[in-house]
């Protein structure tokens, strides 16, 4: 939290802030709604403080994570504005607008929204004890329910072992549903680095700065249309196969984050060792802990139609 030193005198600690905020939000809401502060385990063992709202009925409401609000408080934001923002989030996500839990509890209603994502296996060792998963090298495939709600786009529910018991299905059935749904619900997008940077700068109002012509078969970003958990697009049927066929080369796959990967057609002068050092440095300096997928570099072998670790595929090279 940079630039806060001059405004933190006489400010509450983070623990004190949570308690006071919960009391203020509780007073603002109906007394039938219970405000709670919980530890929420996220990806890679990251634990965040979240405010939840216990309401009556069959609906569920969103969790509001408090770190950014504490930083705003340290930087001088008034209590009334912080409270109003949180209350607005709760009301926008109230059960009338957010989600009917019965859509999730009934497997026949839920199965069309079951999808998968990739996470790091070692960093999530404790979590994996309680959720269905399929290991893939040093990553693992896990499953979640994607809520269908325009107001809360990309809201998800992670699927646990007890959900399978409640639904009366096997892990194989879960996997087959996710394998069918994910490419349909989260369609793949493959763009050159130049395209991605041009779109990013354009969205920020910065004019075109790249030449239209670029080196053929340079670096490409693979994700999905939502840009959320898009690294899993490497699992879609024929995505890697078709691109490798277009380039006529094996592919290096750099796990940029859980949301995207970078594809680099293999050619002289590019080594997996150098790419892996780059991935490690970027993960350590540029990627949030909760979004790190792996420090490894993977590859797709065109002739064998095989996805594997680059260190194993080219170790004799």
Total discrete domains: 3
* Tally of individual helices: 12
Number of strands: 13
Shape: globular
Proportion of β residues? Answer: 15-25%
Give a quick account of the main beta sheet: strands, pairing sense, barrel closure. 6 strands, antiparallel
Alpha-carbon Rg, integer: 22 Å
SSE arrangement, N to C: HEEEHHHHEHEEEHHEHEHEEHEEH
Task: List segments where confidence is low: pLDDT < 50 over at least 5 consecutive residues.
Answer: 1-7
Provide the helix percentage. 25-40%
Separation of termini?
Answer: 45 Å
Quick check: average pLDDT? Answer: 85
Structural class: alpha+beta
Spatial sequence of strands, sheet with the most strands: 8-9-11-10-12-13
Question: What topology emerges from the helices and strands here?
Answer:
Elements: H1 14-28, E1 34-41, E2 47-54, E3 64-65, H2 67-74, H3 79-92, H4 102-105, H5 107-110, E4 114-120, H6 125-128, E5 133-136, E6 139-146, E7 156-158, H7 161-167, H8 171-185, E8 188-192, H9 193-203, E9 220-224, H10 239-247, E10 251-257, E11 260-265, H11 272-285, E12 298-301, E13 306-309, H12 310-313
Antiparallel strand pairs: 1-2, 2-3, 4-6, 5-6, 6-7, 8-9, 9-11, 10-11, 10-12, 12-13
Helix pairs in contact: 1-3
Overview of the molecule:
There is one protein chain. Helix 1 crosses helix 3. The strands form 3 sheets. Strands 8-9-11-10-12-13 form a 6-stranded antiparallel β-sheet, sandwiched between helices. It has helices at residues 14-28, 67-74, 79-92, 102-105, 107-110, 125-128, 161-167, 171-185, 193-203, 239-247, 272-285, 310-313; strands at residues 34-41, 47-54, 64-65, 114-120, 133-136, 139-146, 156-158, 188-192, 220-224, 251-257, 260-265, 298-301, 306-309. Residues 1-7 have low confidence and may be disordered. The protein has 3 domains: 5-92, no CATH class; 102-185, no CATH class; 188-313, no CATH class. The longest helix is centred in the N-terminal third of the chain and has 15 residues, at 14-28. 26% of the residues are buried. By secondary structure, the protein is α+β, with helices and mostly antiparallel strands.
């Amino acid at each position: 939290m940079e630039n806060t030193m001059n405004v933190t005198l006489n400010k509450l600690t983070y623990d004190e802030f949570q308690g006071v905020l919960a009391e203020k939000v509780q007073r603002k809401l109906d007394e039938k709604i219970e405000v709670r502060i919980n530890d929420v385990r996220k990806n890679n063992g990251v634990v965040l403080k979240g405010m939840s709202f216990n309401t009556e009925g069959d609906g569920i409401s969103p969790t509001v994570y408090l770190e950014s609000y504490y930083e705003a408080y340290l930087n001088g934001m008034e209590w009334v504005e912080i409270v109003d923002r949180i209350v607005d989030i709760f009301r926008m996500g109230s059960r009338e607008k957010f989600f009917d839990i019965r859509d999730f509890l009934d497997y026949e209603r839920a199965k069309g929204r079951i999808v998968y994502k990739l996470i790091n296996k070692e960093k999530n060792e404790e979590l994996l004890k309680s959720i269905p998963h399929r290991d893939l090298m040093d990553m693992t495939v896990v499953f979640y329910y994607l809520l269908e709600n325009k107001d809360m786009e990309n809201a998800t529910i992670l699927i646990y072992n007890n959900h399978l018991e409640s639904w009366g299905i096997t892990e194989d059935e879960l996997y087959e549903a996710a394998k069918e749904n994910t490419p349909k619900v989260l369609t793949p997008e493959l763009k050159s680095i130049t395209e991605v940077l041009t779109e990013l700068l354009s969205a920020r109002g910065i004019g075109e700065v790249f030449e239209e012509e670029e080196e053929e078969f340079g670096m490409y970003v693979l994700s999905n249309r939502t840009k959320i958990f898009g690294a899993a697009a490497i699992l879609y049927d024929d995505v890697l196969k078709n691109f490798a066929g277009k380039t006529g080369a094996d592919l290096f796959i750099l796990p940029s984050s859980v949301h995207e990967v970078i594809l680099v057609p293999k050619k002289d002068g590019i080594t997996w060792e150098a790419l892996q050092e780059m991935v490690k440095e970027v993960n350590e300096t540029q990627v949030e802990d909760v979004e790190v997928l792996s420090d490894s570099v993977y590859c797709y072998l065109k002739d064998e139609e095989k996805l594997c670790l680059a260190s194993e595929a080219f170790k004799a090279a």
